[in-house]
DNA sequence: CGTAAAGTTCAAGAAGTACTGAACTTTACG
DNA sequence: CGTAAAGTTCAGTACTTCTTGAACTTTACG
């Protein structure tokens, strides 16, 4: 991929991720690691590729590391390189996070009301229960996908 | 529920929703409509309850209406009242929205690469496919929940 | 049909946040 | 072991975005 195209794509990913609450820089770095060639790159390479400051690369890469999406690997010469985890998104970006937050705030409302079975609690109960059900079922879906993926790689 | 407790709870909901990209005022209004008694309230009542300006209530309620979470109902006397839809959250807050955004940006990366089967495209492909699979299966989960809910109301 | 309440719109101020330059610490080559 | 590259930290700046007061339009009661 053309380096210029890659840089712009990384920024696109940055925008998408930013709309989900990360900083643009965080998403840009992730976007670059998603498409870069070779897949392992040093901070200096990344910096030159995406055009962020040394400070932003340092802070952003640490956040990516802590979130478990990216890992450090030894590099020849000085410093170290970074590599995105193959299924970084499924590992770190929990699609049920939003639902959990809803469940929590609904439950808190029910606690404040005191009587969970009161008619006025219905609005809160319904929302809590829908999301609780979804979250309960989603892990099985992920397992199914992994099984299907494994089957395809054999066959 | 104590009016003061209700107001503070509405603000809590506002904070939770704000972390998902809405304005705090939007979430606060929604939070109030979740727990208020009576469930139908005029803009003036809402304004007094949550302590937002007339302007914020007006703008916020319109957004809630357009998102389909809240509907206007005729009020006695002047003006009109608002009422939250029983399953406002499941209707309007699509838990797959985030996944769709990821699928789109992964696909765009694959398009830029040209060759979808290239080894360097693997990182993009994997993420796209996981989320596509999840989205495909989630509607069935919602149906299951509704069926279960209907069964419980009979029994 | 006049008037006051209800509702809308928008410019301006306030508040929060992300990026970076610069100073500092750590690392490792020669 | 000196030095230069690599990496970290943080205060300041630039930017975006939410809220609101105020002026305006619409509604409906008397």
UniProtKB/TrEMBL annotation, chains A, B:
Q: Which UniProt keywords apply?
A: DNA-binding, Transcription, Transcription regulation
Transmembrane stretches, start-end = none
DNA damage among the record's keywords? Answer: no
Q: Superkingdom, according to UniProt?
A: Bacteria
Q: Which Gene3D superfamilies match?
A: HR1 repeat (1.10.287.160), Winged helix-like DNA-binding domain superfamily/Winged helix DNA-binding domain (1.10.10.10)
InterPro entries for the chain: HTH-GbsR_regulator, WH-like_DNA-bd_sf, WH_DNA-bd_sf
Respond yes or no to whether keyword Transcription regulation is given for this record. yes
Protein name stated in the entry: MarR family transcriptional regulator
Source organism of the structure: Myceligenerans pegani
């Amino acid at each position: 991929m053309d380096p210029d195209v890659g840089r712009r794509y990384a920024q696109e990913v940055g925008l998408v991720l930013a709309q989900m609450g990360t900083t643009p820089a965080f998403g840009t770095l992730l976007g670059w690691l998603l498409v870069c060639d070779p897949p392992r790159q040093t901070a200096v390479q990344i910096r030159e590729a995406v055009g962020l400051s040394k400070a932003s690369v340092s802070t952003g890469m640490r956040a990516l590391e802590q979130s478990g999406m990216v890992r450090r690997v030894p590099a020849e010469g000085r410093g170290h390189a970074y590599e995105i985890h193959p299924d970084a998104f499924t590992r770190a970006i929990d699609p049920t996070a939003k639902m959990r937050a809803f469940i929590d705030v609904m439950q808190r409302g029910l606690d404040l009301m005191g009587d969970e079975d009161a008619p006025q609690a219905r609005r809160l109960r319904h929302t809590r229960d829908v999301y609780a059900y979804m979250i309960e079922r989603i892990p099985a879906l992920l397992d199914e996908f992994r099984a299907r993926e494994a089957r395809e790689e054999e066959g």
